[in-house]
Amino acid sequence: MARWIPFTLHIEIVPDHGSGSSDAKLKSKRFELIRDMQKTASLIYNSVSAISGVEVALPGGGQQRSLYGSDHNNSGLVNGTAVKPQFGETPAQVTITGFASDAGVKNVQHYAEMQKISGGETYEGYSPNPPVTNPTSHLDTLISTLKTDVESALLADLPSGIVYNVFRIEMSGVTYGDRGYHFP
Questions:
Q1: Structural contact between residues 126 and 109, judged by C-beta atoms closer than 8 angstroms
Q2: Would the pLDDT of 139 be above 90?
Q3: Does domain 3-107+136-177 fall into CATH 3.40.50?
Q4: Mean pLDDT, rounded, of the chain
Q5: Which of 1, 43, 69, 172 sits 20 to 30 Å CA-CA off 161?
Q6: In the predicted model, what is the mean pLDDT of residues 44-62?
Q7: Could you tell me if residue 179 is left (phi over 0), alpha (psi between -120 and 50 degrees) or otherwise beta?
Q8: Distance separating alpha carbons of residues 35 and 165, to the nearest angstrom
Q9: What pLDDT sits at residue 145?
Q10: Residues 153/158/163/169 CA torsion (nearest 10 deg)
């Protein structure tokens, strides 16, 4: 029986900045920017949710696909995704939270055991201290598989004009990408 491991996927996007250029058009330009990010998020969500072995968490936030749903309600809502605009050095991102399937039967500790000496006693235990230990190769394999599956799905499903990059993946409390380990 497979286990489900939680993950948070951050995908960098480059939204269309609209056509507004003067201060009078600033509000319209901001709306166009947010709407473009939401439409991109819904396309990315559809691609990621179709990946075999990935379950997107619900409700987990939501983006509207269009200005109005079919009945002017939330019928166009896409659950399980969030967008955030560029802020300082951090690029605009789509965030999706979900669960990835792992064929392992038992729970696996993602850090290696190490010896600790305290008060004249010797202990063995797991150490999630990044400067001391690295994650196990099993977690590296899971991250690599998830990243490859996401990139393949996005390449196949997204229109050619959308610029994206897998920016960061957090799985089982371990971060890969921005402010984390390098992708394996």
A1: yes
A2: no
A3: no
A4: 78
A5: 69
A6: 80
A7: left
A8: 19
A9: 92
A10: -30
Residue 128: what pLDDT? 61
Q: Are 154 and 107 in contact (CB under 8 A)?
A: no
For residue 53, give both structure tokens.
């072995």
134: Cβ contacts below 8 Å, ≥ 6 apart: 111, 112, 181
Q: How many CB atoms lie within 10 A of CB 129?
A: 9
Domain regions of the chain by residue span: 3-107+136-177
pLDDT reported for residue 131: 61
Q: What confidence score (pLDDT) does residue 32 get?
A: 78
Which token pair is 184?
Answer: 């394996």
Q: H-helix or E-strand containing 118?
A: strand 113-118
Please say if the pLDDT value at position 69 is more than 50. no
Cis peptide before 128 (omega within 30 of 0): no
**pLDDT value, residue 172:** 83
- Cα–Cα–Cα angle for 108, 114, 119, rounded to 5 degrees: 130
Angle at which helices 26-49 and 137-157 pack, to 10 degrees? 120
CA dist 166 to 126, 140, 148, 172, Å? 29, 16, 10, 18
- Strand pairing of 174-177 and 81-84? unpaired
